[in-house]
Structure prediction request, 122 residues.
Amino acid sequence: MGRGKIVIRRIENMSSRQATFSKRCRGLLKKARELAILCDVQVSVIVFSSTGRLYQYASPIAATTMGMAMPSIIQNYQSAQEHHQLLNPISQVMEANGGEIIKLRSQRLMFRKSAGKELTPY
Prediction:
């Protein structure tokens, strides 16, 4: 017999909400630790409770002490984001011109259909 499916919405009862937060936060941090160990990756999790309390996990990094792991991972994330944006200028152009691309593709399909050729996606 399995557990019942729950609806994901805010828990109104304050004590139930706090108990659920505590259990799920612990589970999230445990999963982050397991992911870091099993896959040998850098993982960082930051959670602020409704009262403003900080819960965090940062996977240990060989080159730094444990106290510096979180800032190091955040710095790696920021530099990866900047690097990704520099490498993908085409994706930014496609996002900006997404409507035009869809319009041109539909016109191409209509042209092929009117010409009597087989319909292909491109």
User: Anything to note?
Assistant: The radius of gyration is 24 Å. Helices lie at 14-39, 69-87, 89-96, 98-115. The mean pLDDT is 79. The first helix runs from residue 14 to 39.
